[in-house]
Amino acid sequence: MKPAPFDYHAPTTAEEAVALLAELGDTAKLIAGGQSLVPMLALRLAVFEHLVDLGRVENLRGIERVGDSLRVGATTTQSAVERSEVAADAVPLLARATPLIGHVQIRNRGTVGGSLAHADAAAEYPAVALALDAEMEVLSPTGRRTVASPDFFTGLWSTAVGDDELLTAVRFPVWSGRCGFAIREFARRHGDFAIAGAAVAVELDGDDRVRRGTIALFGLGPSAQRSDPAEAALGGAAVDDVDADELGQVAVASLDSVPSDLHGSSAYRRRVGAAMVADAWRAASEEARHG
Amino acid sequence: MTPATAGLDGAAGRYTGSRVHRVEDPRLLRGRGTFVDDVVRPRMLHACFVRSPFARARLGAVDATEALALPGVHAVFTAADLNPGVHEAWYTSMGKDVPDTPRPPLAEGEARFVGDPVALVVASDRYVAEDAVELVDVDYDPLPALVDYHDGPQADALVHERYAGNVAGSLGAPCPDDLAAVFASAAHDVSVTIHQQAYAPVPLETRGIIVEWSGEELTVWAATQAPHEVRMFLARLLGVAEHQVRVIMRDTGGAFGQKVLPMREDMCVALAARLLPAPVKWIEDRRENLMAAGMSRHEHGDLRMGFDGDGRVVGAYIDHTQDVGAYPTPWPVGTAAAVGMLFPGPYRVPRAGFRTTSVFSNTSGRTAYRGPWQFESVAREVLLDIAARRMGIDPAEVRRRNLLRRDELPCTNPNGMPYSDISPAETFEQALAMLDYDAFRRQQAEAREHGRHLGVGTCTYVEPTTTGMAYYGTEGATIRIEPTGTVNVYVSGGSTGNSLETAVVQLTADALGVDLADVRTVQGDTAVTPFGAGTGGSRSGSMLAGAVAETAGVLRERIVAIAAHLLEASPDDIELGESRAQVRGTPAAAVPLAKIADVAYFAPAKLPDGVPAGLEASGRHHARNPMIWANATHVCTCEVDVTTGAVRLLRYIVSEDCGPMINPSVVEGQIAGGTVQGIGGALFEHLAYDEDGNPLTTTFMDYLLPTATEVPAIEYGHVETPGPGPGGFKGVGEGGAIGAPPAVVNAVADALAPFGVEITRLPLTPATIVELIEGAR
Amino acid sequence: MGEIEIELRVNEAVTRSTVPPRLTLADFLRERCGLTGTHLGCEHGVCGACTVLLDGDAVRSCLVFAVQADGHDVTTIEGLDGPDGSLSPVQQAFRDHHGLQCGFCTPGFVVTAEAFLRDNPDPTDDQIREAVSGNLCRCTGYQGILAALRAAADAVET
Ligand SMILES: Cc1cc2nc3c(=O)[nH]c(=O)nc-3n(C[C@H](O)[C@H](O)[C@H](O)COP(=O)(O)OP(=O)(O)OC[C@H]3O[C@@H](n4cnc5c(N)ncnc54)[C@H](O)[C@@H]3O)c2cc1C
Ligand code: FES
Ligand code: FES
Asked: What does the DSSP 8-state code read for residue A157?
């Protein structure tokens, strides 16, 4: 199980990286932590003539609070997020999602940008980005642009990042006020990609009514997705009036392309998804109410 | 958790029975082991197989032009190149007279499963070999495949043309009329069909072999459980004399039956080595391992058991059918008979019968796996729980009424198995007491009121270990007390994880009365050690103990004679201990073993009359019993989340009787390892195929082995009934893997009993559990 | 395709080599450095047998290319014991608690445990389980391994 041959490029700036991508075209692929890409190369499910390593690119790594958001550089490792007090403080949902990713050896290499750009349907970070309305900073040969998370995830393993583009950072808005956050997932074994999961963020007003409530699902479609019907059900509702189990049902009721495989049929995933939404809602609303 | 190992290294005393530190550990812990992939030979080449992407296809031309043009590629072999080199291809353990199933090195004419080796590429390294594999152009003409063995007898597709109905063989008989009459008139006549999925040994080290042909000598480094079987098989394969073949293995990274016999790939590499100018290495990768290294456990049984009004068994019958894949290793029909013969288990069953049928399919071939017959326990124990529930009697109570008691032993079960030296009722009671079964039932009732679903399951089995038959019936040891008085003991053995090095050193130190630190062992080299049948059938402990005792006895007598002579004492007064000989009760009158050895080697004139020079002996133990019985009870408790179907194991207890223990840590390690494999089989592992015969679980992302977060703490209870063999030791290598699946299934079934769920199909994935609950609602 | 010159520290020794980009760090260590204690159980990132420390962090060496380790610091199982071959406290705990059988998974577990206990000297049992959940063992049923980590942690603490 050895990868096919490729040429290796190690640019030191982001501009150099995108220039290389533009020059090499679709025979090239970026490699960040390699935790998703290398297994595919080893299994020869993917073959590229060129790998462009982001490991030596400056200024892509780091976690900082910038005004009302937390800016996380694309090559920041998942472990760095796990260890970051700034992140835990500003964006609890991101911090809570991180230990659910694989295992420590994976998180020591795997990057935030890689997780988002790879956009696995069952990955945690895309759901976190969606739930919090994160914004992605993308560099292309022609300049920088910002992509809102709903526009970022475009389908199965696909994103708005073009072949000659680079995700440089992601900005997670810092929610303030009476907020609560929770992520729940069900996997066959600890550390496996989830069979189904849900991330919930909620902000309550002084009367315990939902001011802002978002629900992102993962493992339940070709990519992570927000549940519009469930969020609509939350809109302005008093916390006590929300039946968590019903909310879960609403969240999965209208899903149309729920995957099905050896580990579970779509009906099963829906059922588990509903339970994860319900659990996550309970935890998040509880936190919002009582801090 | 395991109690700490006593730091006994170097101290004198009786080592057998204590938790001495393993002698294998320092090299393995420091990364200095020698696994087959660690061996490098000058000019060594690397092999990689071209494998069929189709479950069944007619093979046309193989065009290797492009592959051969790739720099670094040395050769591409096809069936036409390698297969004619086969002289004989039968296993010593089976004998050559069984009606063996086909075993061509490379697929010839037809590919018969996805992963079937079609060609062999040899290149300067594995990377280039894999590049070349992609360039080999094989003309496949896909044919309809038989993927599900259940369809075998009716299918149009034949896996092998000469086997009508795809049946590799059948033993036993349909349920006889008189037994059927027993069932018909029984108070409770329970029929059920139980299905087990395919899963596999999956050692963490894949298969691997290096073969070097010098023109006169074939040297082989292999990942194997049985170096001598590899030697005999390859010698016959190539038509060279046995003594021209040398097989070496130092460390093997787990085997569990998968590495007990050389398989088709090993044959290919050996045949290719004869045609190559340099040694060739093949290290299987994980995808190949999960695709082509064999499958086990895929079988079902139509079961029938009758009970009287008190829940006592009046008769039992199993009609067993197993999937043997396309190319089973070894001939599978004979071993399957054990499923039928052991089906009555440790219970008082007055009448019984069985039939077993082996059916081919276009999937990976069946291989041996830790307790190959374990379906007898899965079938019986799951059936007993179902029957208990149908009869309205607690499953533990049903067992209590039927378990064989000590005063009923020895006895022969109705299918002819002669039980002796077992304690099923004792292990059962001990395990239930460790759990506090009644307290658990109360806790369960309380939990149910709060909507929580707890369950308890048990499995009690008897297991034949240490077969005394044919090839397996003897085991040799050579002991050399070197001129300085240090000791080397040579047995076939080899390290595959079962601590044979440590066991042999313990046994030898005690047998010779020397310090543990003075004994080393050399194993796993057929040029050096006596012949031995290797690890299999839970035989090594007892057989090696016999071999060491036999051999050490000779040396002991010689040491005593020399010491008596030197000390001018009577041999009857000499005792050995702490690496010296002394006159009993007179510590001052002692002579160190070093001195005795010095005399034996360098001053033979000083030896007493009739004592030969040197201190070297070989001996061979001959097993006098057809088998040595072991038994155990597994008890497991669990909680089932009825929303997600997740099963959490709460407590896991194994009470076992393997006789006296050579090393309790090793015994417990074997039990734990086997148990977790069984838990994997019950809950996680599934070597699955789609309808077209494509394997779905060829990576560790899809084939789910249990990890540290899924397994419970395992608690051990020991009952000690000495067996009839050396030291009273019995086998313990396989049992864990036998007892765990039914215990886990029964625990889950117990938790779900209020829903009216009956479990008859493995594995219990969360999704299937939810389906069962929904189905019952 | 072009080979690349790399220089890295392996078990404290500066090592230079010219490697094809596709050579994994695991194969580099095993084949170029002769450090065969790093084992390959899957080559796709799941089993953990190939775990090494890269700049002190436990990583899967089958998922890192040797070229990516250029300029970095690698510690393998061979770099953990004393120069005289004495076992590290973690290695000793594995021996004391029968934390290994065939030994194939062992280097990965030991390397993972060394980093974990360095960063978490006072772990709970659940944290211990989670720390090694990315390493597969087929022999031990994990019982001895978990006992070894517990003991090693307790020894550090006292
Ligand atoms: C055993 C195992 C278990 C895992 N479990 C989980 C899990 O439970 N949850 C989970 O979310 N993940 C899991 N992962 C995947 C892991 O989190 C990966 O690290 C992550 O998906 C990708 O990050 P990476 O930095 O490794 O990206 P790489 O593997 O280097 O790249 C992945 C893809 O993203 C592209 N890419 C990377 N960075 C950028 C960028 N900055 N801009 C544009 N494109 C980019 C690459 O070109 C490539 O296509 C697991 C992996 C393994 C091996
Ligand atoms: S070999 Fe690297 S994780 Fe398995
Ligand atoms: S000791 Fe054999 S795989 Fe862990």
From this structure: T
Query: Is residue A288 over pLDDT 90?
Result: yes
**Count of CB atoms within 10 A of residue C115's CB?**
22
Q: What DSSP line would sit under C14-74, residue for residue?
A: EEEEEE-TT-BHHHIIIIIS--TTS--S-SSSSS-TTEEEETTEEEEGGGSBGGGGTT-EE
Contact check, Cβ <8 Å, C112/A7: no
Which ligand is located closest to the Cα atom of residue C51?
A: 2
Write the pLDDT tens digit of every residue in B432-442. Answer: 999 999 999 99
CA distance B580 to B596: 9
Task: Tell me if B699 and C137 make a contact (CB, 8 A cut-off).
Answer: no
**What's the Rg (C-alpha) of chain C?**
16
Domain extent for A20: 7-53
Which tens digits make up the pLDDT trace of A243-269?
Answer: 999 999 999 999 999 999 999 999 999
**3-state secondary structure (DSSP) of residue B243:** helix
Fold of C89-157: DNA polymerase; domain 1 (1.10.150)
B187 CB-near residues (< 8 Å, 6+ apart): B306, B307, B308, B309
- Burial tier of B275 (Cβ tally within 10 Å: 0-12, 13-18, 19+): middle
Q: Which residues of B touch C137 (CB under 8 A)?
A: 204
Beta carbons of C62 and A42 less than 8 Å apart:
yes
CATH of C4-79, one of 3.50.50.60, 3.90.480.20, 3.10.20.30, 3.90.1150.10: 3.10.20.30
Gap between the Cα atoms of B202 and B225, Å rounded: 14
In this structure, the dihedral spanned by the alpha carbons of residues B391, B397, B402 and B405, taken in order and rounded to 10 degrees, is: -170
Rounded-to-integer distance, Cα B34 and Cα B205, Å: 12
Q: Check residue A100 and give its pLDDT.
A: 97
For residue A1, what are the contacts with CB-CB under 8 A and spacing of at least 6? A42, A43, B130, B285, B286, B287, C42, C43, C44
Cβ proximity of A223 and A229 under 8 Å? no
Q: Which ligand is nearest to the CA of A191?
A: 1
Give the three-class secondary structure for B164: helix
Q: What's the CA-to-centroid distance between B495 and ligand 3, angstroms?
A: 12
Q: Mind listing the domains of chain B with CATH numbers?
A: 10-33+469-622 (3.30.365.10), 374-466+625-776 (3.30.365.10)
Contact B528, B227 (CB under 8 A): no
- What is the distance between the alpha carbons of residues A175 and A134, in angstroms, rounded to a whole number? 11
**Phi–psi pair at B520, nearest 5 degrees:** -125, 165
DSSP string, B1-49: -PPPPP--TT--S--TTS-PPPSSHHHHHTT---BGGG---TT-EEEEE
* Domains C4-79 and C89-157 in one fold: no
The pLDDT confidence band at residue C2, using thresholds 50, 70 and 90, is confident
Q: Which pair of tokens denotes residue A235? A: 């809109």
Spatial distance between the Cα atoms of C30 and B33, rounded to a whole number of angstroms: 13
- Distance from C133 to chain A by nearest Cα, in Å? 7
Q: How many CA atoms lie within 13 A of B123 on its CB side?
A: 21
Closest ligand 3 atom to residue B254 Cα is 2
Confidence of residue A160 (pLDDT cuts 50, 70, 90): very high
Instruction: Tell me which DSSP letter residue B162 carries.
Output: T
Cβ of C139 closer than 6 Å to ligand 3, yes or no, is yes
Q: How far is the CA of B705 from the centre of ligand 2 (A)?
A: 14
Coil, strand or helix at B703:
coil
Residue of B2, B5, B27 to mutate, interface with C, max C Cβ within 10 Å: B2
* DSSP letter, residue A253: H
Q: Give the whole-angstrom CA distance, residue C111 versus residue C129.
A: 15
Domain at A40, CATH number? 3.30.43.10
